[in-house]
Amino acid sequence: MSRCAAGRWLPLQYCSGVVATIPRANFGTLLDHSVNPIAEVYGVPHVATGDMFRAAVAEGSELGRQVAPILEEGHLVPDELTIELIRERLADVDGFVLDGFPRTMAQAEALDSMLDEIGKPLDAVLLLQVSDQVATERLAHRALLEGRADDSPEAIRNRLRDYHELTELVVDRYGQAGIEFAVDGEQSVDDVFAAIEDALEGVAARR
Ligand code: ADP
C-alpha cells in the first residue's frame, strides 16, 4: 500500500498508469509539480521518454547520437527505438507512471503486449489538455527562458502536427476503452495536481 497526497491509502497497483501528453506545453513545470509528485507519493517510478532521450543525448551514447537531430527538429523518434527504450525500462518495475508514451498507435499496441506479458493492465490514462494556442505560447515563453533547441517555431509546429496526426488517435483509443481522464492542463499547477489525484482515486474507487 502506498499513501496518496490527500492522506488516503491506495493499493499500489492502482497507480501504474500512462500519461498521454500534448507536446510539452511547458509540462516541464506542470509535470515536475503534478505528475512527478504523484509518482513519488505512490512510490512508483516516473518514466518520461523525453527525459530519457535527453539524457542519452547528454551522455553522448549511440542512442543519443541517433536521436539528437530528431529531438532538435521536434519530430518523433522512430517507434522501434522508443518501444525498445520503454521495454528495457519497464522490465523490472512494479507500478509506474509513464509520461509522454505512447504517442503513436504502434507504441500503444506495443505497450499493451508488454503489459500483457507482465500481467499488469493499464489502470488509467491521464490526458493533460492544453489548446494549441496556449501550448504555443508556453513553448515560446520557455524558449526565451531556457533556449531549448526544440522550442524553435518550426519544431513547435512539427510537434503540434504530430500530436494531431498521430497522438490523437491514441487518445481516442483509450477514450473508447473508458480508462482515460481528461485533466485541464491550463489550470494552476496545484489544481492540475488535485485533478490528477481525483482521477486516480476514481480509478481506485471503481475497483
Ligand atoms: P514535449 O512534451 O515537449 O514534446 P518530451 O520531453 O515529452 O517533450 O519529448 C521530447 C522529445 O523526445 C519529443 O519531441 C520527441 O522527439 C522525443 N519523444 C519523447 N517521447 C516520445 C515518444 N513516445 N515517441 C517518439 N518520440 C518521443
Which features does this protein show?
alpha/beta; binds adenosine-5'-diphosphate; disordered N terminus; 207 residues; Rossmann fold; two-stranded antiparallel ribbon; single chain; five-stranded parallel beta sheet; 7 strands; 9 helices
Brief rundown of the structure:
With 207 residues, this protein is an alpha/beta fold. 58% of the residues lie in helices and 12% in strands.
Overall description:
By secondary structure, the chain is α/β, with parallel strands linked by helices. The chain has a single domain, classed as P-loop containing nucleotide triphosphate hydrolases (Rossmann fold), CATH 3.40.50.300. The chain contains nine helices and seven strands, in the order E-E-E-H-H-E-H-H-H-E-H-E-H-H-E-H. The strands form two sheets. Strands 4-5-3-6-7 form a five-stranded parallel β-sheet, with helices on both faces. The radius of gyration is 16 Å and the shape is globular. The N terminus is likely disordered. The structure holds adenosine-5'-diphosphate (ADP). The site of adenosine-5'-diphosphate has 20 residues, from helix 3 and helix 4.
So what's the overall shape?
Answer: globular
Low-confidence stretches: 1-28
Relative strand content: 5-15%
Number of DSSP helical runs? 9
Structural class: alpha/beta
**CATH class, anyone?**
Alpha Beta
**What name does CATH use for the topology?**
Rossmann fold
| Biggest β-sheet strands, sense, barrel | 5 strands, parallel
User: H/E element string?
Assistant: EEEHHEHHHEHEHHEH
